[in-house]
Amino acid sequence: MAQALNDPDGLVNLRNLAHEVDRTAPSNKSVPIVFVPGFSGWGAPLFGAVNYFGGVIDIPKLLVDKGYTVIVAPVAPISTNWERACELYRQLTFGQFSMANSTTNSIDEVYDVDVDYGTYFAADPAHAPEQTVTIGRRRAILFSNSSSFPNWTWNRDHKVHFICHSQGGNTVRYLISLMANGAGTLHPTYFSQPGRDDWTISVTTLGTPHRGTTIINALENFLSRSRQKALGLVARLFATASFYPPARRAYDLQLDHWGICRNAGETFQDMLVRMEADNGPVWKWFNSTNNGLYDNSIEGVHDLSQRIINTSANIYYFSLSFHATDPFPGAWPAWGQDAINSFPIRIESYLKAVIGNIPIVGWLMKKTINAFTSLGWKLITTETSFRSFGQWVTEAVITKILQEQGYHLVLPNPGKYIPRKDVIPIFLPTVYAMGGQELTRAQKNLLGPNLGDWYQNDGIVNTESMSGPQGCVRSISSLSDFDFSRPEKRGIYWHLGVNDRMDHADEIGVFIDDQTAFLMKEMYLNIVNLISRLPV
After folding, report:
1. Where are the domains of the chain?
2. Residue by residue, what is the 3-state secondary structure of 55-106?
3. Lipase-like C-terminal domain: which residues (predicted)?
4. Over the stretch 153-164, which tens digit does the pLDDT of each residue have?
5. Which stretches of the chain drop beneath a pLDDT of 50?
């Protein structure tokens, strides 16, 4: 009996779909699976221990132990999708890899990849990198027990599956469009030849902002400090991260071609002065649209969609959505009423102070005070909503106190959602802020009439944005059969559904509990079981 694909939980639909395809199609584990990290991602385990895909659990190794071959692409963490697409193409066609050492469980990284970014930045030289070619970049990392892959090169005879987290999905969408249509004069070296989108068999996206995310707007509202002060902080962080050569960096921004690196003989103080300078490399990067911040915004992804194809008719697409929210309480919770009743001044004293000097008959005043006193401050809970009261406390009390003390912060108001109790602590503020972040009129115009719910989120990306590019999505529940050899199965994002157990970090296994770790591992195993059975 066929498994149902209409469960509210997208992970259940994924499991059921993988089970059905497993029954009808053989597995082909010879096609490598390319993992593409999202914004702020990395390649080799961070600090030697934390994998981007899996956290302390090594998902690539887990898959290799089951016979798959995995390639992890260490594309730049905060760069544009154009830069990341160029890097990804070069890493997959370089012909050599950094190797995962199964004996020591470590990565023997090599830094010799050259990347050409073409003429993409020529239109705006004031906000362009200092160089359009960079050298000494990381090789992609190969995890495989097969002897046929060390010199493997991506081409029509050597196809791939892509599994993408967050921004990685838009990076791959850009790359596939360049492979399909070419880039003309923007990049005659990498993308002069069209018709190569069939080098890819499938793309699976996890929490990808296919239509952008409001987190940048939420953070800008929270940090009301001047842009110049923010720029100074960014410059210091960039200088600290980029002072040493790439091989010695704890976290590599990969912005050397922007001049965000140490010059020969330069001290840290000299580098810091250069980074903080007006019109310096950080200023050029930060005050432009040529960065990952813009490329993940609603405006940035809309611009991307105007320039590229959304899907290829040669490729299978699957998407999974997530959220980490609970609805904001509609009624006053019991603790809220208790808190109101514990207000530091008795309502009787307050009323006497307010109406005590009004010339009314004494017995009437006493009766009025007694009537309100019997209700207590609970009166507030009957006349105003919990959310409205929370908004007043936030705006009129807490934010004002912080600002008077010199903190340049504007706390987010209560919104439609609050963070789930199991959300990773670092995401608590962003889940909360995005749960009340209003779209601007311009953003609503870009997104079109069918907005959906742009408050629900996973801490980084709005859930509404994760299903796929606009106009290219179908629910997996509408899948008529499990024969993926039929051409109508390609060129459309099959949305597997929404999971309400994972936040943005859980999707890749970073800082999760045992129960969520099990779900995360099962998710990746089901994905690879599904895509490895698709027709090549």
Report:
1. 10-217+289-327+435-531
2. ECCCHHHHHHCCCCCEEECCCCCCCCHHHHHHHHHHHHHCCCCEEEECCCCE
3. 31-319
4. 999 999 999 999
5. 1, 361, 369, 372
